[in-house]
Structures are given as structure tokens and as C-alpha cells.
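Q: what does this look like with calcium ion bound?
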Amino acid sequence: MPLSTKHNILLAEQLCLSLNMLKTMKVARYSLKSEVRNPNVERNPKPENRITRLAREFALTLARQRSILSGLRISGFCLPAIARAAGRVSGILASDFFRVSAIRISDFRPNPSPITRQVYVPQAVLTGLLGLLGLLVLLAGAETLRAGNLYLPNASFAAPVVPETNPYAVPDMAAWEKSAQPAWYDPSQNDDTPWADLMGTFYNVPFPGEYIDNCDGSQAAFIFALPGAAIFQDYDSLDDASTNASHAFNAKFNVGRSYNLTVGVIGGGGGMQPGATLQLSLYYRDAFSNLVIVAATTITNSTTMFPTNTHLVDFQVQTPTVQPGDAWAGQNLGVQIASTVGFDIPGGYWDVDNVRLVEEIIVPNYSFESPVVPEVNPYAIPDLAAWEKSAQPAWYDPSQNDDTPWADLMGTFYNVPFPGEYIDNCDGAQAAFLFALPDVAIYQDYNSMDDGSTNASHAFNVTYTVGKAYTLTVGVLGGGGGMPDGATLQLSLYYRDDFSNQVTVAATTITNRATLFPTNTHLVDFQVQIPGIQATDPWAGQNIGIQLLSTANFGNSGGYWDVDNVRLTEVVAPQLSHPVWLGGNFNLTLQSDPGTHFEILGMPCISSPPSDWTSLVTFTNTTGAILFSDPAAGLNQRFYSAHQLP
Ligand SMILES: [Ca+2]
Ligand SMILES: [Ca+2]
């Protein structure tokens, strides 16, 4: 038998010993929980000692294992893992993103917070300008975690401006269309009040007892609680002042995304009856231009719901993830706020404000709440809905590990409310565990398949979209089960190439240490970021994959990771574009997620010291595309940077 083979067998035996130890520890951990939960069970007087003892023994095992490894230098068992890791790393280095992200604004400017990353935007169109005018556009985008805001015109009812005189209200409402006068309404029976006057905009008068304390801006809208009174907005809607649709609201139901509408509402105004209803909805228009509701929330007036008339209460509408077969997939999205009161209890008015619309990506089983883990010992199961587990590697032999299947090294657990064990920021009641052993991983993409399925559900159907930036955030807890310092977990975003290989687009490696995870009861968020997808990226248009991979080696393996709350956000990647000279001034357009705040900085040359950076303007990019015109004249050269503000 060759020497290397003998070493490998020896190594495998040591590893199996470690695995058995781990398993014992895991059982011990869960047994402890069960003892505490069941007072009828006779408890070990000092149960912690079992853990301490096991941890010490495990540490000894690891020490022995490490000494073997150091003698081996390179183990044949490790090679596949190393090769795979190397493949992933080369995938990262090949991307422009990492070269670009190496340029940090802190090189140029003191106190860079919150700038942490720059995207370099000398587009092809700018190259000509460089030669001609000596101008270069440089962009810095901050990392802000949120869903993608969608621009909704006049979402806060700031237009038109209402005169600050009695009655502090006008029927005008920019951007919003009003419902047509229904057959039953007769203005002559209502003091000649036009139907259109039943919906409008008002000034938040600062009178005691009337002033809305959480109004966004100084205006809001009112809708009378009469059957059929409604305001709505979509691609083709038309406000009272317009004769042609502006098409300014151009959001669509995109496959793989879901939509969340939030509206601040006050009920009860003007003697509104309890039981009067207001419906918030997201809709699309069918082939006959009918409004077809995709998701809706009905608010029922009560004094419990609205104890005061001076505080808006947020209500939400949430759509399911848009599927390719949905009738609304790819259709324009509409927002409607409608009085749905019956003829039995009409009267009064609703106040509404601050309509917020976001596009979200919901990762299937992102919080590991499925399947439900029984609340009995051991409070953990190997099942994981929606997530696929890594295949059993060649080095792992269940028969050498108490017949423990490889698949049992990844699973779901119930967050047992036991002092010292209860994760205080767990999302929901469950999380997932991954043993800190080489090759242990869970992942999800368009074609992945969980243990309980025989066909891919394709439920996670999100592609890398050109011009968008992505952030993956995962709550992670290291150190469990005596995990040694130095054990690593890799979070990554990938795509599958033509051969179905997982190719990493961006990754973050978490290295276990006590300073990073001071307790075993608090998840810490880690992120993976892709600042922007370029049309030339091989992954542009490809389906997104998410992987959580233990990258421990045989020298630092042991213990388990807890993970929870996998969030993937997609926003418009900040970009400076369309540089033009107009009337002797340099103009450029900043594209970004709508509603984000920026500062435009200028510097005389790209290597200018921080002291030479000049703040030119700060603004909110309300629509998602804003024109900046540099007031300075006679410039020969200036470099620009967009600095995203909190
Ligand atoms: Ca407002
Ligand atoms: Ca959870």
C-alpha cells in the first residue's frame, strides 16, 4: 500500500472520530434543551459539564488531526476541495467587479463613511469626451441594504401645492387618476359638488388636534368614504390636469420578483362609521383595459384601528412572487386606493399619504421555516425545503460515522427558548445548521432540488439583470459545537455555465473567531455584493444562485454553523451617464434607485488629494434619473464622483 494511501486512511479515521464527537455534542446540546423543557425528566445536575468535556475531547482530537495533516502537508482527500475552491476564486478574480472595487474612495477622501465602494464609469461614450474635453466621470455608490424602490409619481401628494388658506384643500391631484362618476351619483343632489371633488389633496394644517404628526412632507390626500370613490395610477392613467398620459409610472410585474405596497392611512374622519372599508390594491390592465387586482388589503374603520385622527397607520399589500405563467407577468403595474364602503354606511373621509412601492426578491424558504421542526428532542431534522444539499464527497464514508448519512450534516432546527441557547434575533422560529466540514453546503438556483422533490420547482427564478446591483445578506452564527478558530464559511452568488457548473460571481468568506461571534445566541449579518451587472458579464441574464458552503479544511473543521434569514436585494446600480455640454456647462445624468440621496463631488484630477475634493451639490434622486449641471464655467478638466448618502 502506498504511503499516501495509508495516510489517507489514517486521516479518514481521525475525521470519523471527529464526526462522531460532533454528533455526540449535537445530541448533547439538544438533550439539554429537552431536559429543561420537560420538568418531569430527571436532570443532570450540571449538564454544562458534558458539553465542556466533549469540547475539550474534541479539541484534543483536532489537535491530533492537525499534527497528522502537518506531517502530510497535502492530503489526497483535500485536493478535490482545494481544486473546487481554486475554481471559485479564479471566477471571482476574473470579474471586473473586484478590480474595480479595489479602488476605494478612502484613498482619496478622509472620513469616507458611508462610501465603501466605487464603480468606475468611464463608459465607451465617455472615452471620446476624455480625449476631447479632458473629462472623466467617476462614481461612488454606497452600500445600502433595501429592496428596490419603484418610482411612483406624486407618491406623497406634494403636488400641486395647496394654498395655506381656508379650506386648506383642493380637488387637484397630480399624477393620480380619479374613478369615473358612478351612475348613482348626482351632483345636483349634493350641493352641486362634482364627483371629482370627493378626492383631493390637503395641507396638513398645524392646528392642535388636527395636525398629523407623521405626515410625509406637508400634504396628504383625502378620499370620501362613498361607494366607488377611488384614485389609481398606472402606465396609462391620466390626472385631471392632463390630456395625455405621461407614462411616468412605468413599473412592471417582473418574473421572480414580488411587490410590496405600503400606504399611510387614517380612518374615522368626518364621522365615518365603524365598518367602512378602504381597499389598497396592486393591479394590471387586461386586454380590455379592465383593472384586474393581483393583490389587495382591505382596511376596516374602527376606533381600535384608528384611535386618533392625527396619526397615519401603515398598511401593506404584498403580492406573491410573479411566475412566468401569471397573466400579469410582464404587464404594467397599477396602484389603487379605493373606498369600498357599502350604501348602508357611507360618509366621512379617509386620509392617505406616503405611498411606497418596492420590488422584492423573496428567496424560497429564506428563513428555514419549512418544514416545521417538531418541538421535541432533538429539535432538529435534516430536512430543508427548497434548498439543495451538496453531494456526498468521496472522502465521506457513512459506515465510518455511525451510518450517519451525509445529508444529515445539513438541516433545520427549532430555536429552543432555552437560556443561553435561544438565538435572540432569529427570524421566525427556525434556522438552519451546516456542519463545519469540508464540502458541506446548501444552495439554491432555478434548477436546484430539495431532498423532498423529484423535480425542480423553478420557484427561485431570478436572473442577473444588466444595470442592477445585488446584495446577499445572511445571518450567521459561528463557533457552535466547539468549532475551532479559523474554520470558514463561504457565502456566494453564482450562475451555472453551459456545463451546469456553479461559477461564483461574488463571494464572502467568514472566518470563525471569538471576537466575531462572542456569543452563540446572536446571528451576525454578512453580505455578498455585486455592484452592477454589465452587458458583457457572462452571467448577465443568467439565473442567480445562492450558496452557503463550509470551506473548512481537515485542519480546522469541526462544530457547526447556524444560518438564517437569507435576503437578496436588487437595486438600480448607481451610474453616471449622458455627459453633454449645454450652454457652456457640463451636464451628466445620475441613474440610481429612486428615492436615494447623493452628493456630487468634483476634483481637479483623478489622483487629487482629499483636500481638493469639492462637494458640488446634494440631492435626492426621486425619479431614478436626475440631471446634474455643473455651474462652474471655463473648466478644462474635472472629475466627478457620486457619493451615496444614507
Ligand atoms: Ca405627503
Ligand atoms: Ca428563520
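Residues 423 and 521 are 4 Å apart (CA to CA). The helical segments are 3-37, 48-72, 78-93, 96-101, 124-133.
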